[in-house]
Amino acid sequence: xxxxxxxxxxxxxxxxxxxxxxxxxxxxxxxxxxxxxxxxxxxxxxxxxxxxxxxxxxxxxxxxxxxxxxxxxxxxxxxxxxxxxxxxxxxxxxxxxxxxxxxxxxxxxxxxxxxxxxxxxx
Length: 122
Description:
Elements: E1 7-12, H1 15-25, E2 29-35, E3 41-46, E4 53-58, E5 75-78, H2 81-90, E6 94-95, E7 99-101, E8 104-110, E9 116-121
Parallel strand pairs: 1-4, 5-9
Antiparallel strand pairs: 2-3, 3-4, 6-8, 7-8, 8-9
C-alpha cells in the first residue's frame, strides 16, 4: 500500500535559479542537495515539515527539455492567500489575481520555467 507522495519532478533549465525561486519566494527549504553521479545534481525542495518534495531536475541531463514548464496539476496550500499573494507581488513573482469560488480562494503562481501551481487557502 502506498503510504505517501514522496516527490514530484519538475524539469528546469537552471537548478540554482529554480532553487532560489522556491526557497526565497515561496519559503520552501532544501531537503536534499547531493551529487547523483551520472544523473547530475539531485535537488529537492519542500515546504517546511512537508512529507512531499519537488525534485528540481535538470532538463538537459534527463533529456526532458520538452517537459520544461509542463507540470502536473499541483495545488499548494497556505494559511492566508491574500497575504501570500501580496508578498509574492512585492517580490515580482508572476501570479494571477486571487479568485474566490464556492470551494475556496486561490491564485496561480508561475515559476521561472513556466510551471504553474494553484495556491489555495487552508
